[in-house]
Design a protein that fits this description.
19 strands; Rossmann fold; globular; alpha+beta; 2 domains; 7-stranded antiparallel β-sheet
């Protein structure tokens, strides 16, 4: 579970931003809250949050910051000496180009709190540290300063050996986890297993993840079909498969003209076949399942919902933290609301999964769906171009105040300025 995330000097984020899923003392919508022994006394977490803002205000960059951190944790261990890091500083202020990017994340794994922080530039990890809180008491696992200066308070011999084998452009967290050091392995697993981010860089439109779930077992397929039925998309069955193809078996002219049914992400070449079935009746009233080609005969909304529902159900089942960029894309507003409500429903969300979305769908701005501490806004500084993020709580809006009306009137900012 996610408690808090901070980012600085990343893309449109110049100064440090803080995004938190710690709940306020508000008593409303207690079904939207998570209570854990790992938290401090009286602290509770939110099951979801929504981020609004004008186009180009930096909403997506908040999610990309988390994705960049996750990607760094997952891939830095593969770096060779001299390999460059994925450094994307704020470009509109020249001095930021020579400053490090900084990320920190506060999370819960196996009912223990962890706090991980890192700063880096294009060539090296500069600072890095990991704390955990067994029995709610802070304890240092490791501290790294100036790239090569390490401090350990436990398992010093083991950790010193690992640190000597950690390159300047490799995270100690990742390297030590790869070597099965148990105290960092759990934190690493949170990034690998519990964090799911779906955005323009991470979502495969053909729905590869959902296809794998369809073919995983009968229960998974039934859950997907039930969700598609509830969404009123008219589907009664789906048959889908993924076939691996050796690119060497195809001529160059074919490779350059592959249709959307082929997924070539991550250097893989896969043929994705999806057939949907709709119910029809003949003249005698007898029912038949009629096959449709998914890519050419289904609506864009159906394709989008199909791509989302696999990761969605998987997150609910396993208690993941799920980030979705532009939830409303190609979806009816009522479908978006339905998907959000699944995370608030205890009968579906039994393992304290969390959902963070960006959206322009103002229909979700109502106090029957979200508490005020769940609603966030992004806005760019007009002079510098820096992204700021802030919660509706900062406005101390009255309980009877119409949130949607206030937002559209510009009371909370985060709206586009359209010149005459």
């Amino acid at each position: 579970m996610l408690i808090e995330f901070k980012a600085e000097n990343f893309r449109s984020i110049k100064d440090e931003i803080t995004f938190s899923l710690l709940a306020s003392s508000d008593k409303s919508l207690d079904g939207n809250l998570i209570e854990l022994d790992a938290l401090k006394k009286d602290d509770r977490l939110l099951k979801s949050a929504v981020i609004y803002g004008a186009n180009a205000s930096g909403k997506s960059n908040v999610l990309l910051a988390m994705f960049s951190l996750q990607n760094l944790v997952m891939t830095s261990v593969k770096n060779q000496d001299g390999d460059l890091l994925p450094f994307e500083p704020f470009k509109l202020t020249p001095e930021c180009m020579s400053k490090p990017s900084k990320f920190s994340v506060f999370f819960v794994k196996n009912n223990i709190r962890y706090k991980y922080a890192v700063s880096f530039d294009r060539t090296k990890i500069i600072d890095e540290d990991l704390y955990y809180y067994p029995n709610n008491r802070e304890a240092l696992i490791f501290e790294r300063r100036n790239t090569t200066e390490f401090k350990f308070t436990t398992d010093k011999r083991i950790q010193n050996d690992i640190s000597k084998r950690t390159l300047d452009n490799v995270l100690y967290l990742s390297n030590s986890a790869q070597q099965n050091y148990d105290k960092t392995l759990e934190a690493f697993k949170w990034f690998r297993e519990d964090l799911r981010i779906i955005g323009t860089r991470t979502l495969s439109e053909p729905g590869e993840f959902t296809i794998k779930m369809l073919n995983q077992d009968d229960d998974s397929k039934k859950a997907i079909l039930r969700s598609l039925e509830r969404a009123d998309l008219g589907l009664v069955n789906i048959i889908a498969n993924i076939e691996s193809i050796d690119p060497g078996d195809l001529p160059v002219e074919i490779l350059n003209q592959l249709p959307r049914s082929f997924d070539t992400t991550s250097g893989k070449l896969q043929k994705i076949d999806i057939n949907t079935f709709h119910l029809a009746k003949d003249k005698t009233g007898k029912e038949h399942n009629i096959p449709f080609d998914f890519n050419t005969e289904e609506s864009e909304g159906t394709k989008r919902f199909f791509s989302l529902i696999g990761p969605w159900l998987n997150a609910l089942k396993n208690g993941h933290v799920l980030f979705i960029d532009e939830l409303e894309l190609k979806l009816h507003p009522m479908l978006s609301e339905h998907l959000v409500k699944l995370f608030h429903d205890k009968s579906y969300n039994k393992n304290n999964a969390q959902l963070i979305i960006t959206t322009h769908n103002t229909n979700l701005l109502n106090d029957e769906l979200f508490r005020r501490d769940q609603i966030w806004f992004t806005e760019k500084d007009a002079d510098v171009g820096n992204t700021n993020i802030y919660s509706l709580l900062e406005f101390q809006a009255r309980k009877d105040q119409n949130i949607l009306k206030g937002y559209l009137m510009g009371r909370y900012g985060a709206l586009p300025f359209i010149s005459a």
